[in-house]
């Protein structure tokens, strides 16, 4: 871990506190910068997220490490850039564990410092030691429990990928012995009735692109699967299942310091929230899913209140990457979006090099420590959460751990508005971008400029791109030719950081 500035422990009196603060990281999926009312959304109301912002610090220039889930979460949980490791692209549901058991994670950091740790919700970083060979009917041999998480209750990948079951402590939750599970990412399984064989009248959601392999709960998925029986999730209950397990975890561990990584399925596709939310928002299912996410946040904060833990718990709320409307299902997200801007004032979205791909909501609340209702313009990256939490714990990371994470606790808890000097982020074609407070450089790459299926501008170009983010936050005017020295400087940093990759 690299330390920034003069962050000696004597400057941070709170690290010597007798009572260790609990830490909850709430990580939404594909939730855009503009999808939250305190970030300017008007067609959706997110009172519980807004309440966290009112009680803490809300960042306007915070970034994820990559504009898709797997590499983004890899960077956030290990403090190492995903571009250093080849197999960090969007993972299949039968991918083997991408973080190796020997690699240090945020969970290890907490565990080493006397915390009880949990990962609940969406995982998407592979499980099991061997791709395609997980024992879904017994025990999966490598799990987040090998990465410092004492407790795990997870979807292996995403809601649109098989297997459509939760895995608790390495075993399928509610396992149904009468319906043994088979999974294939190669071809349909024997006797499997697939999406394409299913009559339209039996579909809850139609695919718009992809998502036409297995059919489970009336929804097409990526990958083939048979069996599962009563263990199969119902999409309308996913948020409830995740939330109930999170609340239960809080009940069980209220008397000891805990770290909970709570990764919601909302607002990823397929969007099919519970009846309590479905059909309620003018923006359709995507709006309903945002409301459902906000509900989860409210459940967690209410539980902390009930247990008397509000004051001694730091909550970090963020998203894994920028937003997308049509991500493969006909859920009317593009048709009903109206003047709502999921990516706020920024260009691009999920997958892309443009700012809406990596700029995400980021809110930190720690009563008595974070200032209230503060808006921070500090440049911040999720890669630095690990180093900053190490500072919080007054802990030193092992020498080879979190090689890219920088200790920026003061910025993260709103004690200073001064952020990091630069942030690097990776796009879905693995090209890199680098941001400073003023500039944004996009590395030349061969990708397509527009992903038609999802209607997202990627920002990929064979030309070097430089944008002045203060004058042109919408990245409309490439000024690379006008500022060759800035380009050279940013390229130099990128080269240094990505040497040997
Ligand atoms: C894409 C999927 C998309 C989503 C994404 C991963 C298709 C056509 N599209 O390949 O629906 O699952 O992967 O999203 O299959 S992420 O947020 O988990 O990175
Ligand atoms: Ca995502």
What are the SSEs and their pairings?
Blueprint: E1 2-3, E2 22-28, H1 47-54, E3 57-59, E4 62-63, H2 69-78, H3 106-112, E5 116-122, E6 151-155, E7 166-168, E8 171-172, E9 182-184, E10 215-216, E11 219-220, E12 224-226, H4 238-253, E13 258-263, H5 285-306, E14 313-319, H6 333-336, H7 355-358, E15 362-365, E16 374-376, E17 380-381, H8 385-392, E18 406-407, H9 409-412, E19 423-426, E20 432-435, E21 439-442, E22 450-451, E23 456-457, E24 465-468, H10 484-498
Parallel strand pairs: 1-18, 2-13, 2-14, 3-16, 4-17, 5-6, 5-13
Antiparallel strand pairs: 3-15, 6-7, 7-8, 9-12, 10-11, 14-15, 19-20, 20-21, 21-24, 22-23
Bound molecules: 2-acetamido-2-deoxy-6-O-sulfo-beta-D-galactopyranose and calcium ion.
Calcium ion (CA) binds near residues 30, 69, 320 and 321.
What does it look like?
By secondary structure, the protein is an alpha/beta fold. It has a domain at 22-172 and 236-412: 3-Layer(aba) Sandwich (Alkaline Phosphatase, subunit A), CATH 3.40.720.10. The protein has helices at 47-54, 69-78, 106-112, 238-253, 285-306, 333-336, 355-358, 385-392, 409-412, 484-498, and strands spanning 2-3, 22-28, 57-59, 62-63, 116-122, 151-155, 166-168, 171-172, 182-184, 215-216, 219-220, 224-226, 258-263, 313-319, 362-365, 374-376, 380-381, 406-407, 423-426, 432-435, 439-442, 450-451, 456-457, 465-468. The strands form 7 sheets. It has a 10-stranded mixed β-sheet, sandwiched between helices. A 4-stranded antiparallel β-sheet has the order 19-20-21-24, covered by helices on one side. Strands 1-18 form a two-stranded parallel ribbon. Helix 4 (238-253) runs parallel beside helix 5 (285-306). Bound molecules: 2-acetamido-2-deoxy-6-O-sulfo-beta-D-galactopyranose and calcium ion. The site of calcium ion has 6 residues, from loops.
């Amino acid at each position: 871990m690299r330390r920034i500035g003069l962050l000696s422990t004597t400057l941070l009196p709170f690290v010597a506190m007798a009572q260790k603060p609990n830490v909850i990281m709430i990580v939404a999926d594909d939730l855009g910068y503009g999808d939250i009312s305190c970030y300017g959304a008007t067609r959706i109301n997110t009172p519980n997220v807004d309440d966290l912002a009112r009680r803490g610090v809300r960042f306007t220039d915070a970034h994820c490490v990559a504009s898709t889930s797997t590499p983004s979460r890899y960077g956030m949980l290990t403090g190492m850039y995903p571009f250093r490791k080849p197999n960090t692209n969007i993972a299949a549901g039968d991918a083997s564990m991408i973080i190796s058991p020997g690699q240090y994670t945020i969970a290890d950091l907490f565990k080493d410092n006397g915390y009880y740790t949990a990962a609940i919700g969406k995982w998407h970083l592979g499980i099991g030691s061997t791709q395609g060979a997980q024992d879904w009917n017994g025990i999966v041999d490598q799990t987040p429990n090998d990465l410092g998480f004492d407790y795990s209750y997870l979807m292996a990948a995403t809601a649109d990928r098989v297997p459509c079951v939760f895995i608790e402590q390495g075993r399928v939750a509610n396992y149904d012995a009468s319906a043994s599970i088979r999974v294939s990412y190669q071809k349909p399984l024997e006797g499997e009735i697939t999406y394409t064989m299913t009559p339209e009248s039996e579909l809850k959601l139609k695919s718009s692109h992809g998502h036409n392999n297995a059919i489970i709960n009336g929804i097409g998925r990526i990958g083939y699967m048979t069996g599962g029986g009563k263990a199969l999730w119902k999409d309308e209950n996913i948020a409830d299942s995740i939330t109930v397990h999170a609340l239960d975890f809080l009940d069980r561990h209220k008397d000891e310091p805990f770290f909970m990584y709570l990764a919601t399925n909302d607002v990823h596709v397929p969007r099919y929230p519970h009846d309590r939310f479905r059909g309620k928002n003018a923006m359709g299912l995507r709006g309903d899913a945002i409301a459902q996410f906000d509900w989860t946040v409210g459940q967690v904060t209410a539980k902390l209140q009930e247990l008397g833990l509000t004051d001694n718990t730091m909550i970090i709320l963020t998203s894994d990457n920028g937003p997308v409307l049509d991500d493969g299902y006909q859920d009317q997200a593009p048709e009903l979006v109206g003047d709502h801007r999921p990516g706020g004032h920024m260009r691009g979205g999920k997958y892309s090099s443009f700012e809406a791909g990596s700029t995400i909501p980021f809110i930190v609340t720690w009563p008595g420590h974070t200032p209230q209702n503060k808006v921070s313009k500090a440049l911040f990256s999720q890669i630095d959460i690990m180093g900053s939490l190490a500072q919080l714990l007054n802990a030193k990371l092992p020498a080879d751990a979190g090689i890219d994470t920088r200790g920026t606790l003061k910025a993260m808890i709103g004690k200073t508005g001064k952020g990091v000097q630069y942030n690097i982020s990776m796009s879905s074609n693995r090209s890199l971008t680098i941001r400073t407070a003023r500039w944004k450089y996009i590395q030349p790459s061969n990708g397509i400029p527009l992903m038609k299926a999802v209607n997202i501008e990627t920002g990929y170009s064979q030309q070097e791109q430089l944008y002045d983010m203060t004058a042109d936050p919408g990245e409309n005017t490439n000024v690379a030719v006008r500022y060759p020295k800035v380009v050279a400087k940013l390229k130099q940093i990128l080269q240094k950081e990505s040497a040997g990759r």
